Amino acid sequence: MKSKLQVHLSNIPGWRTRRKIVVIESDDWGSIRMSSKKAFQSLLKAGIPVDKSHYNLYDSLESNSDLEMLMKTLEKFKDSTGHSPVITGVNIVGNPDFEKIAANNFTKYEFEPVTETM
Fold first, then answer.
1. What is the pLDDT of residues 44-55, one digit of tens each?
2. Which of 67, 63, 115 is CA-nearest to residue 94?
3. Half-sphere exposure of residue 92, counting CA atoms within 13 Å on the CB side?
4. pTM of the complete model
């Protein structure tokens, strides 16, 4: 409890504003945790409780269409000066190549670059 209180107290002198700001935080866009639903089911059958993490339950790669829909939605909103929301995407540019990693007997990391662009 004491450490939680210290963390919150350390934020008191931080940046302040009277503006109303909405921050939507999402990280690791483009990252994938499961190679497939089959892999997910195999892990469950092996007794690994991957279903206990919401990160694993709802894991999927976003598509260009997903991001385009997000941008179109954000364009509908304006602040008091007529500006639309601003978003900074932080994307992963490659994902594990599970087949190559397995072929290397899990001794070497291999990845597949993401090639689809907006």
1. 999 999 999 887
2. 115
3. 16
4. 0.49
Radius of gyration over alpha carbons of the chain, in Å?
20
Task: Write the DSSP assignment of the chain as a string of letters.
Answer: -HHHHHHHHHTTTS---SS---------BT--S-S-HHHHHHHHHTT--GGG-HHHHT-----HHHHHHHHHHHHT---TTSPPP-----B--EEE-HHHHHHTTTSS--EEE-----
pLDDT digits (tens, 9 = 90+) for 61-104: 677 788 889 889 999 999 889 998 888 777 777 778 889 999 99
Task: Check if the beta carbon of residue 19 is closer than 8 Å to that of residue 80.
Answer: no
Q: Which of 19, 30, 26, 16 is nearest to 87 (CA)?
A: 26
Nearest Cα to 118, choosing from 74, 79, 70?
Answer: 70
